[in-house]
Amino acid sequence: MKKRIVVLSMLLSLLIISSEAFGGLFFKKKKEDKAHLTFMVNFQASETITGVLEEVVNEFNAENPDIEIELIPGTSGYEAMMKAKMAANDLPDMWSTHGWSVARYSEYLTPLQDQSWVTALHPSIRPVITNKNGEIFVLPIDVDVAGVAYNKDVVKKAGVNVENIKTWNDLFNAMEKVKNIGVTPVHIGGKDNWTIGNFFDWAAPSFYVTDDAHYKGEDLKNGKFDTEIWTQLAEMFKEMHEAGYLNVDVLTSTFSDSSRALATGEAAFEFYGNYVLADAWSYNPDANLGFFPVPAFYEGDEPSLISGERTTVGIWKDTKYPEQAKRFLQYLAKPEVMGRLASANGIPAGLTTATSDTGKLAADYKKWEKVYAFPYFDREFLPSGMWDTMCSTGAGVLSKDMTPKQAAEKMLEDYKKLYK
After folding, report:
1. Of 45, 51, 43, which is closest to residue 97 (Cα–Cα)?
2. Which of 15, 161, 246, 410 is deepest in the core (most CB within 10 A)?
3. β partners of residue 143
4. Nearest Cα to 85, choosing from 138, 128, 42?
5. pLDDT mean over 286-290
6. What is the pLDDT of residue 2?
7. What would the pLDDT profile of 375-404 be if each residue is shown by its tens digit?
8. Which residues contact 360 (CB under 8 A, 6 or more apart)?
9. Pick the CATH number of 35-144+308-363 from 3.50.50.60, 3.20.20.150, 3.90.550.10, 3.40.190.10
10. Are 274 and 255 in contact (CB under 8 A)?
């Protein structure tokens, strides 16, 4: 019996040796798994950009058989989901930072300022995605650059040249001219009060973060909120309303109403991103629309644009596959790939090496390309959570439930609480 066991053992050893010698004929070694990375975006599956991203991901996977990128579209609860993932330190390998690459996500992301594509960053997006130490945490595929949206035919009929609108006083004069021809100067869909908050996001930089003489941006970042300045801003907003420059149904109308009013020539100016223009063209494809810089508040200051992240990709600092993720970003940074993705949103590419089809807004993007662009005010200069306060206090001013001073005091109260 013992002899049989010894013989069987010898035979088994020979089989194992033979299998290794002849490529695993009997006992195949487990094949190395490819690097599997998750890429989560805040765009929903139905959006155009999501479809183009999926095509690009599939093409990258085909060209890189050792890597598999899984694209995960977002939902309406993307922001809350990402906050939960941060709290659990359980994040995707890569994700889009929807405007918060520095203020919210930077401690979870891999610094990328050593990547070759950084030298070609679009000048409007560079300050938005760079922290005070010069670190950059995302590849911006495109640049969300916007100003004051307007109907070109309406302002022409009113005798207004937007190139001459340098200050808020100039804009008030233009609004008066528009009112005199029977058109609503500014439309805000205040039923959803984010539209009111958006006005303050657009207007606040000209009050707080202009030139060296009036610069309060660093104060805001360091725990100091000047209520006198916010009171001035809220007072100006109140004056617009009382002068009849806002739509009479400002607190009951919607964003869709704003889009439609701009498209049909029922309104001249609006304080939204350029997405409102795309939405307006869905109502009237022939509408003559564009945008111009947000005016300055102080004499001597220059008008400015608003810039933010639209489509971005950052890498989790704890990913198992950092080099593979960087390869994917290098692929996205190729001019032909980035140009294709940026064109899906109809906005400028995030790198100067890529060209985007900006469609009907191409002339305006070209005209204002050298104008300085401020980041979204609440994302850059206020603690996380202040957005809701901006929206609610602005609505309070319009409804007369709050005075401009009370709105500023509420801003200060929440600022102190959230800054901690």
Report:
1. 43
2. 246
3. 309
4. 42
5. 97
6. 47
7. 899 988 999 889 999 999 999 999 999 999
8. 277, 281, 289
9. 3.40.190.10
10. no
Cβ neighbours for 363, distance < 8 A, ≥ 6 positions apart: 290
Domain extents for the chain? Answer: 35-144+308-363, 146-307+375-419
The token pair that represents 315 in the structure block: 């890498």
Between the alpha carbon of residue 79 and those of residues 41, 121, 129, 136, 347, the distances in Å are 10, 26, 18, 21, 23
Separation CA 243–CA 230 (nearest Å): 20
Positive or negative: CA dihedral 260, 265, 266, 271: positive
pLDDT tens string 125-150: 998 899 989 999 999 999 989 999 99
| Angle, alpha carbons 374-375-379 (nearest 5°) | 145
What one-character-per-residue DSSP string does 236-273 give?
HHHHHHHTT-B-TTTTT--HHHHHHHHHHTSEEEE-S-
Q: How far is CA 148 from each of CA 131, 180, 248, 258, 305, rounded to the nearest angstrom? A: 27, 20, 20, 13, 8
b/e code 237-261 from CB counts within 10 Å (16+ = b): bbebbeeebbbeebbebebebbbbb
CB of 240 within 8 A of CB of 186? yes
Whether 35-144+308-363 shares its CATH topology with 146-307+375-419 is answered yes
Distance CA 79, CA 96 (A): 11
Which tens digits make up the pLDDT trace of 309-366? 999 999 999 999 999 999 999 999 999 999 999 999 889 999 999 999 999 999 999 9
Tokens of 323: 């080099």
What backbone phi and psi angles, to 5 degrees, belong to 290?
-170, -165
Residue among 127, 147, 143, 44 at smallest CA distance from 356? 143
CA distances from 8 to 4, 14, 19, 28 (A): 6, 10, 16, 21
For residue 323, the one-letter residue type is: E
The model scores a pTM over 0.70: yes
Instruction: Compute the distance between CA of residue 145 and CA of residue 308 in angstroms, rounded to an integer.
Output: 7
Phi, psi dihedrals of residue 264, rounded to the nearest 5°: -95, 0
Lookup result for tokens 């906005």: 347
Architecture in CATH of 146-307+375-419: 3-Layer(aba) Sandwich (3.40)
Candidates 276, 272, 274; CA nearest to 256 is: 276
As a whole number of angstroms, the distance between CA 168 and CA 206 comes to: 9
Average pLDDT over residues 216-243: 94
Which amino acid is it at 386? M
